[in-house]
């Protein structure tokens, strides 16, 4: 395992990505405050470049490559948001990129990744191993593999979203972030170390993909089958060694969220805040709305991690939710 990143690495990442990644807005809703019973501050990463927080880590990781690595290019694997982020970060840096993506990734994410100039290699997420495919491409072509979460520069870069949130809002009592592989949650925890040491760090993941919750409960990394959930950004089979180590140290709890609660949160954000947020991005709000976290009367940050969902799928999910 590589050396774990720390708060100073998040600060350094913020300096590296400044002027390339957007400083996204922090948004409020009096209605949602009333429903949660707290002051809620939303870090709106749908307004980030490529529509998700993943661009932060991608830019930081690409900025850290040496001249030889840049000349040969990079390879990454992702269900969508890391794919787009790495493709754009590589394009901006003028380096080649190969992205391994599942055949059932949202069409909007596949199209965007290709539009950013990357070569896309597809695979079946239920029968093939994306890590093995990525490693083989790296070996065969001399590419540098940059995974979606198990990488110190990726973790540090993702932590810049929380760093900005604390900078704008001051200390918070709790911060809730989605969990797939754990890069965003781990990075957020590192940001809190320096900016708000007393802040409770809470993760939220799909009920069908509760490997992170089980891993923390059992004290070991639990590997599961590919989760069948609408939260495609959290369909990971296991967290990484680095993210597990950081979460064990800094994360208080991880809340499992059912898919219908994600759709309800999508509807709430669209109707009340005029925000289009993908299912994975709604995990934190859905966890807060479920109650039981002791958030009443507190100042709570929630990271809305991304907004990459095509309107056809958004309409179908909302329609099905209304019919139910």
Say what the CATH topology of the largest domain is.
Rossmann fold
Number of contiguous helices: 14
Would you identify the CATH architecture of the largest domain? 3-Layer(aba) Sandwich
Biggest sheet strand order reads 1-2-10-7-8-9
SSE sequence, one letter per element: HEHEHHEHEHEHEHEHEHHEHHEH
β-strand number: 10
Give the strand content: 5-15%
Average per-residue pLDDT, rounded, comes to 95
Question: How would you classify the helix and strand content by structural class?
Answer: alpha/beta
Gross geometry: globular
The level-1 CATH class of the largest domain: Alpha Beta
User: Distance N terminus to C terminus?
Assistant: 46 Å
- Structural Rg: 18 Å
Give the low-confidence spans. none
Work out the helicity level.
40-55%
Query: In total, how many domains does the architecture comprise?
Result: 2
Main β-sheet description:
6 strands, mixed
């Amino acid at each position: 395992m590589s050396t774990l990143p720390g708060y100073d690495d998040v600060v350094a990442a913020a300096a590296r990505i400044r002027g390339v990644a957007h400083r996204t807005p922090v948004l409020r809703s009096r209605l949602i405050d009333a429903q949660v019973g707290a002051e809620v501050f939303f870090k709106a990463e749908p307004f980030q470049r490529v529509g998700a927080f993943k661009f932060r880590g991608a830019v930081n990781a690409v900025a850290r490559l040496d001249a030889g690595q840049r000349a040969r290019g990079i390879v990454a694997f992702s269900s969508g948001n890391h794919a787009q982020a790495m493709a754009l970060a590589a394009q901006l840096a003028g380096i080649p990129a190969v992205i391994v993506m599942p055949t059932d990734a949202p069409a909007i994410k596949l199209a965007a990744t290709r539009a950013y100039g990357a070569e896309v290699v597809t695979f079946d997420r239920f029968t093939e191993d994306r890590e093995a495919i990525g490693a083989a491409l790296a070996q065969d072509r001399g590419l540098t593999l940059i995974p979606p979460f198990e990488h110190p520069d990726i973790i540090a870069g993702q932590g810049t979203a929380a760093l900005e949130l604390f900078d704008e809002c001051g200390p918070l009592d709790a911060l809730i972030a989605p969990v797939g592989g754990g890069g965003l949650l781990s990075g957020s925890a590192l940001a809190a170390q320096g900016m708000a040491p007393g802040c409770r760090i809470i993760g939220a993941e799909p009920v069908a993909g509760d490997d992170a919750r089980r891993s923390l409960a059992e004290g070991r990394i639990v590997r599961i089958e590919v989760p069948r959930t609408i939260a495609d950004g959290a369909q990971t089979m296991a967290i990484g060694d680095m993210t597990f180590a950081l979460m064990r140290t800094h994360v208080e709890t991880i809340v499992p969220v059912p898919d219908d609660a994600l759709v309800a949160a999508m509807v709430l954000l669209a109707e009340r805040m005029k925000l289009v947020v993908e299912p994975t991005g709604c995990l934190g709000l859905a966890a807060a709305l479920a109650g039981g976290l002791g958030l009443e009367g507190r100042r709570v940050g929630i990271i809305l991690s991304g907004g990459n969902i095509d309107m056809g799928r958004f309409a179908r999910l909302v329609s099905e939710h209304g019919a139910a």
